[in-house]
């Protein structure tokens, strides 16, 4: 009985979904539901019907096509030519939709199976004609393999089928046929060797075996040498992309991973179209798969990939036939994409004759009006109407339109305006169609009155839109209807509009040009009264928002998980901490002595400086709001005007992301933030913006694999939303630092990504992902971790981590013990022990020379900055020998990101960036690595800049700052060794000339070099930086 009831329910659901699909066949979610319900009925005919209905309206992926093909094969008579043609046509349709390696592989296997079947049967039926002949098989299989050849990691699954089939033919051939096949296979293998792919070695081995078996012995070596040269570029091409392929796979082929990969390929001046086209095809296939499974934002990503793909084909002058095929495939894939449809219309206008273009464009425009998702989405509908109207307008201007061409143009736009207002009661806030129609009406003298009627109607529909009102008054002024314009200004000045300041400014400008003194003053008086009303209203709104914001902050703080009890040492790394950008972001300045724990002769003076620094320290996290969904090309003064009434603004930064404009607004005081949050949902240029606390969209991430880099993080976290920035710590003082910050453009994306917290990301790492809440951030920066860590050397290889921990626990609470082990799990002779506080680490120095497992151990502070002061003679020269200098570093370079890029080419020990002069010091593991790096022939491109590599200076004392270049081109060289070196270490506050200052003085003038000494070190580093740059 239950089974019958379930079946009855399924049939009822099937009937219901079919009715809904009849009303809205372009809803892909309904098709997915239809297929699911059909499968639930257990009726194969219903499943097949659901799959076929999906393919009739939409491009489908392998999840739809493979079951449909399999069902067709199972239900067909494979000895029937008609059935065979039907199956082959089905394969062709499936392969036209998306690039699917499984479908292409299934097609190849089907062809080989049928070919072998006919070979065993003694021949093919005459009705097949050329089908499944050797020549037809080769041509057909070669085309299938070519479709997937650009897939770097999976194309071999196709090529290997063709290769094995051809080699089997060759093995059984004789005479002229054998000679022909030898030539064919030789050309095929050589062509494959010149294509980038993952199993190049296997292909080369196949060519070697082929040459051994089918070529004269004396030709073997020359042919192999020639083949090796031929494949060299392809091997390099794959090696350059292997890193991206691996990162993409690790991220589960996320759509953001594809976008990042594509962006890296498009940076090249001449992109590799063989790879880039296949990469777009792969991204589109993956986006469709995710859309079909119901993933949020997949439809938007799929539309973005298609529009970018056809733009690439256009800019690279690809043949019209190929571009046309891409457009048609794209419109089957994303029929609701108005941007793609608008591009298609422009392509047809460019590629076809006027009469043919008119017929085609009319047909697709009429079809677009039947696509529900397109007609209900204003952002997709408006581009389509503008594209259609633009085509009609250009026909009129060229004299190729009919007698009713102008009336047709007006009708297209007015019909579009009606559709926009029907799609949404809010309409189009940018009034794009109204502006277009108004411009046309104003060009024709007889239609000036129509422009007035248009904008009068627009102000009734968009009652609060400043854009509608100012456009209306502009038209009145252009027609010299000054009294009417003044009447409108007086009426709207006191209305509740989205940007009253713009209306007031327009009114004042109008009266300055066309008004009397009395009219100007009347306008100013009215505006002042209106401004008072608006400010009072905003103050009330700000007060309400402040209370709401405080409640939100309290709720977020209460919901973020925080460990209240002591946690294991490894887990404590999860506490959020700042990326210490001080060394690089502040123009390459050295860390201050108070930050490094260096003793100072005048402790009271130092305390005063520290207190002053603490007082002036910027509180970026609590004083910054993030602004998203900004209109294109937004200007800083527009944001200043919006936020100026919230408080004093310290800094505004606008960033253009691939798909949007965003900004950060930092205030002088955190009390300004609640008022700033009230600007959420306000409008700039008629577009609604989003405002939130910057930290709410920021994640603190740690405990990921050591080899994880920026690409790994972006691809892993990119699937949750658009990433604004990824910030990495510098490793120049501690190479073991492994954390980063990921900031999204919306808090929702950050909250969604919290699901990765605790996920195993390989190598036994359970990643920690937390909201980077500044209120819960540990009261420390990572810079003092060096002072809490000791370096233990001279260990017996049989010492265990537990024994070390037991020894050092006697000096204080141990946070972590890092044993450096060999491949057998035994100690390599040294380890790092990190304590909870600095005093315990210094106390642990008493363990120096302690006997452990019959070995005397050496214990020193692990801080490389402290140990660096007591290096053996010649050590600094050794460091310079294994270091190079990089120039032309792009602005805003993160040391952590630069080190990641350089580690792709050599073993790096330390990177230090000097942002004010665009240079960096790079220290390698040894001099040999540095030498190989200097001899590189290929340029290193970082963030779009080609880095210049020069040897590090090899004489004189080391500084943490580069030497300033001598003035002019005198060619003189001043030895750095001639400058006396103070006894204190780097960053010391001791009196005397600082190394960098001395070097600067030697390179320029003696006065500049001794000023610091004369003042007893009283000048700060900002003063020194000015001296170094010549007072600029």
Quick take:
This protein is α+β, with helices and mostly antiparallel strands and 1032 residues long. Helix content is 55%, strand content 10%. The strands form 7 sheets. Strands 2-3-1-6 form a 4-stranded antiparallel β-sheet. A 4-stranded antiparallel β-sheet has the order 8-9-7-10. It has a 4-stranded antiparallel β-sheet with strand order 12-13-11-16.
> How many β-strands, per DSSP?
22
Give me the secondary-structure category: alpha+beta
Q: In which range does the helix fraction lie?
A: 40-55%
| The CATH class of the domain at 624-779 | Alpha Beta
From the N-terminal CA to the C-terminal CA, the straight-line distance is 90 Å
Global geometry: globular
CATH fold-level assignment of the domain at 624-779:
Alpha-Beta Plaits
Mean pLDDT: 81
Main sheet record: 4 strands, antiparallel
Could you please describe the fold and organization of this structure?
This protein is α+β, with helices and mostly antiparallel strands. The chain contains 43 helices and 22 strands. The strands form seven sheets. It has a four-stranded antiparallel sheet with strand order 2-3-1-6. α23 runs antiparallel to α24, α23 runs parallel beside α25 and α24 runs antiparallel to α25. The N and C termini lie far apart (90 Å).
């Amino acid at each position: 009985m239950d089974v019958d009831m379930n079946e009855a329910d399924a049939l009822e659901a099937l009937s219901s979904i079919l009715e809904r699909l009849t009303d809205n066949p372009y809803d892909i979610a309904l098709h997915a539901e239809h297929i699911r319900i059909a499968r639930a009925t257990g009726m194969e005919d219903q499943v097949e019907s659901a799959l076929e209905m999906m393919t009739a309206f939409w491009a489908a992926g392998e999840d739809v096509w493979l079951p449909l093909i399999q069902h067709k094969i199972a239900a067909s008579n494979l000895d029937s030519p008609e059935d065979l043609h039907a199956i082959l046509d089905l394969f062709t349709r499936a392969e036209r939709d998306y690039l699917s390696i499984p479908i292409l592989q299934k097609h190849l296997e089907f062809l080989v199976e049928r070919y072998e079947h006919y070979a065993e049967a003694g021949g093919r039926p005459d009705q097949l004609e050329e089908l499944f002949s050797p020549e037809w098989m080769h041509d057909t299989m070669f085309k299938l393999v070519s479709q997937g050849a650009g897939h770097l990691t999976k194309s071999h699954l196709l090529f290997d089928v063709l290769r094995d089939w051809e080699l089997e033919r060759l093995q059984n051939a004789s005479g002229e046929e054998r000679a022909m096949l030898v030539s064919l296979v030789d050309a095929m293998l050589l062509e494959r060797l010149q294509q980038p792919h993952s199993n190049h070695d296997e292909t080369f081995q196949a060519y070697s075996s082929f040459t051994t078996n089918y070529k004269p012995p004396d030709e073997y070596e020359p042919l192999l040498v020639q083949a090796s040269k031929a494949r060299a570029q392809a091997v390099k091409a794959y090696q350059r992309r292997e890193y991206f392929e691996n990162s993409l796979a690790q991220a589960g082929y996320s759509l953001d991973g594809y976008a990042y990969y594509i962006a890296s390929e498009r940076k090249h001046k001449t992109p590799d179209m063989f790879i880039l086209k296949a990469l777009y095809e792969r991204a589109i296939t993956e986006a469709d798969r995710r859309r079909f499974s119901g993933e949020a934002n997949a439809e938007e990503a799929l539309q973005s990939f298609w529009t970018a793909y056809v733009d690439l084909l256009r800019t690279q002058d690809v043949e019209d036939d190929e571009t046309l095929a891409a457009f048609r495939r794209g419109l089957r894939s994303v029929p609701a994409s108005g941007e793609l449809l608008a591009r298609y219309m422009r392509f047809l206008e460019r590629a076809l004759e006027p009469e043919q273009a008119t017929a085609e464009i009319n047909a697709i425009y009429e079809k677009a009006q039947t696509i529900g998702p397109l007609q209900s989405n204003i952002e997709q509908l408006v581009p389509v109407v503008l594209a259609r109207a633009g085509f009609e307008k250009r026909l009129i201007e060229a004299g190729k339109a009919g007698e009713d061409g102008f009336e047709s143009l007006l009708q297209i736009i007015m019909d579009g305006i009606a559709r926009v207002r029907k799609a949404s009661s809010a309409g189009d806030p940018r009034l794009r169609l109204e502006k277009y129609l108004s411009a046309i009406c104003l060009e024709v003298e007889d239609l000036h009155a129509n422009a007035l009627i248009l904008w009068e109607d627009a102000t009734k529909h968009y009652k609060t839109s400043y854009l509608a009102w100012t456009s209306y008054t502009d038209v009145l002024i252009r027609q010299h209807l000054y009294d009417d314009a003044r009447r409108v200004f007086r009426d709207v000045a006191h209305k509740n509009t989205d940007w009253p300041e713009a209306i007031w400014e327009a009114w004042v400008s109008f009266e300055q040009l066309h008004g009397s003194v009395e009219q100007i003053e009347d306008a100013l008086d009215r505006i002042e009264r209106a401004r008072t009303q608006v400010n009072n209203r905003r103050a009330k709104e700000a007060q309400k928002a402040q209370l709401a914001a405080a409640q939100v902050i309290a709720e977020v703080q209460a919901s973020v998980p925080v460990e209240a009890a002591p946690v294991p040492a490894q887990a404590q790394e999860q506490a959020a901490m700042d990326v210490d950008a001080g060394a690089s972001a502040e123009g390459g300045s050295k860390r201050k002595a108070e930050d490094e724990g260096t003793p100072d002769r005048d402790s009271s003076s130092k305390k005063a400086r520290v207190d002053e620094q603490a007082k002036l320290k910027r509180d970026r996290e609590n004083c910054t709001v993030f602004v998203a969904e900004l209109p294109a090309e937004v200007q800083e003064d527009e944001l200043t005007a919006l936020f100026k009434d919230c408080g004093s603004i310290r800094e505004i930064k606008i960033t253009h992301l691939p798909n949007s404009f965003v900004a950060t607004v930092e205030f002088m005081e955190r009390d300004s933030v609640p008022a700033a949050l009230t600007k959420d949902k306000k409008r700039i240029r008629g577009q609604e913006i989003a405002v939130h606390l910057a930290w709410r969209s920021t994640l603190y991430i740690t405990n990921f694999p050591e080899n994880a880099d920026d690409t790994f993080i972006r691809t892993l976290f990119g699937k949750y939303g658009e990433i604004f920035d990824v910030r990495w710590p510098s490793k120049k003082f501690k190479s073991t630092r492994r954390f980063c910050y990921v900031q999204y453009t919306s808090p929702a994306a950050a909250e969604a990504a919290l699901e990765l917290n605790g996920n195993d990301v390989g190598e036994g790492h359970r990643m920690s992902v937390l909201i980077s809440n500044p209120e819960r951030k540990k009261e420390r920066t990572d810079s003092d971790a060096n002072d809490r860590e000791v370096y233990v050397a001279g260990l017996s290889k049989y010492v265990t981590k537990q024994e070390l921990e037991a020894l050092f626990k006697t000096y204080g609470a141990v946070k972590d013990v890092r044993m450096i082990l060999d491949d057998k799990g035994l100690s390599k002779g040294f380890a790092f022990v990190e304590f909870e506080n600095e005093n315990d680490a210094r106390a642990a120095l008493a363990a120096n020379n302690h006997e452990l497992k019959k070995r005397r151990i050496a214990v020193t502070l692990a801080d490389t900055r402290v140990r660096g002061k007591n290096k053996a003679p010649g050590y600094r020269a050794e460091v310079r020998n294994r270091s190079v200098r990089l120039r032309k570093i792009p602005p805003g370079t993160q040391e952590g990101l630069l080190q990641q890029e350089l580690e792709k080419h050599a073993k790096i020990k330390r990177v230090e960036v000097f942002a004010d002069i665009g240079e960096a010091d790079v220290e390698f593991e040894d001099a040999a690595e540095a030498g190989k790096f200097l001899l590189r022939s290929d340029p290193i491109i970082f963030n779009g800049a080609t880095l210049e590599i020069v040897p590090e200076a090899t004489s004189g004392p080391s500084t943490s700052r580069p030497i300033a270049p001598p003035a002019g081109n005198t060619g003189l060289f001043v030895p750095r060794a001639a400058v006396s070196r103070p006894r204190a270490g780097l960053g010391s506050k001791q009196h005397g000339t600082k190394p960098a200052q001395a070097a600067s003085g030697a390179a320029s003038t003696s006065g500049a070099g001794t000023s610091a000494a004369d003042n007893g070190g009283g000048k700060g580093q900002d003063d020194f930086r000015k001296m170094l740059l010549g007072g600029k």
